[in-house]
Amino acid sequence: MAQMLPPDALYLIFLHACASPIGDLSPKVLSLSPMNFANVCRSWREVVAERPSLWGHLDVNFRSLGSLTPNLSQVVETWLRNSGSAPLNLRLKFNLESAVRNSEFEAMVSRILSQAHRWKDVVLQLHYPFLQEFLGEISLPPMPFLTSLCIGCGPMDAGNIGIRFDVSHCQHLQSLTLRFGVKMGLFERERYRLDSLTFLNLDVDNSGFEDFQGILQSSPNLSELDVSFSSSSGFDRLPHLEAESLSLPNLTYLFLIDENRILMVRLLKWLICPNLRLMYIQNTYSESALSPHRPEVIYVVTTELLQALDDFFHRSCPPLTQLELQYEAKEGDIPSSSHQEYSQIFSRMLHRLNGLKGLYLEGFVIDDQLIQEMIVTKNATEFKWPRLGEVKLLCEGHGVLSRSMVDMLISRWDSGVLKYLEYRIPGVVDLVNEFPSVEKRVNEGLVLRRRRR
Fold first, then answer.
1. 227, 204 in Cβ contact below 8 A?
2. Of residues 28 and 272, which shows the higher confidence score?
């Protein structure tokens, strides 16, 4: 019956079957490949031979503690050769933990990179201890078919690699991810357009900020931006900005990792995002968060950061529904003499975001006035942050009273707004154990958690 199917139907069936990932290269897995389909009968062989695009889909997830499975490189070579000039859709994840350089693996990766001009939808993850020594910097040719590119490497002690390519030829590019040890560089910095680009996920340091800026300026339809700012040589050199501001009207999601305060503040003072819905900023307190050139700098909350955030929200006026600002700092990192100033700037910033549904804060300073402003007075028809249902406050407190927390909690729960509250504020007691009225709301369904350091 299979021989009676029309060629186009067979092609669709084969195409669906060939999407299965190749991991252990067992006969069972490899049987679902164009290679074995061609051995069934003449009509199947003709379908496979006449459609190189069947070989344009390859999904390999390979992990080894030693050498490659002998026929892995042969399988990759067969797919690349038989796909002819067809665009390539690749999902290649290699985790090779080797004590010495592996020439077979490096030859296979080089062969894959040599076909970059045919890449269309590509995920390439290379975990190989000698990656920097092997590749260093990759120069990719023009990629006119490219719609999605994701390249990552690791572990961190393998060093970084550079990816250089000409985005002016990537008119169909919709998603670009270069992370985990991969740094971007552009051949062409003249004006270009990336009208199709909607998702951008990059590691950016000082040397790559101007290229990053160029991509943002060329991507008017960008909707998701995920950036990790890291330190590099030339830390004290401010990157050049071609314009005072950049509006990204379609951006709805913004995720930033702050390990280079200069670049972080630079971006916040530059961007305008009038339709931003979700915003996340994170930084982890660790030795790696210190600048190698200015080790006394610790990236915790500062006046500079607060002012940059406040200015960003003032210029953008976004309909933000979710705000997460997470700065994991040691106790005492923010001096008590700065608490009042910090809490005032933060309160002003928060008042610009009346549409919030979720607020998650760690490492910031809040005051009792802010908590009182969150209280819903009896029979009130209008109140601040009317949709704020999930709150996490792991903060320093400037005069925050337990009684104010109780009044805020009870009033917002009774108004049907608050559903979840997690807190760690110095001086605020265990509300459940100390206040029966709070215990009553918890028994009714309120999720309340007190965190300890």
1. yes
2. 272
**Please, are residues 321 and 358 in contact by the beta-carbon 8 Å criterion?**
yes
450 CB-contact burial (10 Å; exposed 0-12 / middle 13-18 / buried 19+): middle
Neighbours of 357 (CB within 10 A): 16
Whether the Cβ atoms of residue 115 and residue 88 lie closer than 8 Å to each other: yes
Domain range list for the chain:
330-453
At 375 the pLDDT is: 93
Name the helix (H) or strand (E) containing 366. strand 358-367
**N- to C-terminal Cα separation, the chain:** 68
Say what the pTM is: 0.85
Position 167 scores a pLDDT of 79
Torsion of Cα atoms, 204 then 106 then 175 then 140, to 10°: 80
Q: Which residue in the block uniquely carries the two structure tokens 């393998």?
A: 158
Query: How confident is the model over 309-326, as pLDDT tens digits?
Result: 999 999 999 999 999 999
**Alpha helical stretches, state H, 232-302:** 261-270
Q: Which of 17, 13, 28 is nearest to 57 (CA)?
A: 17
Does residue 307 register a pLDDT over 80?
yes
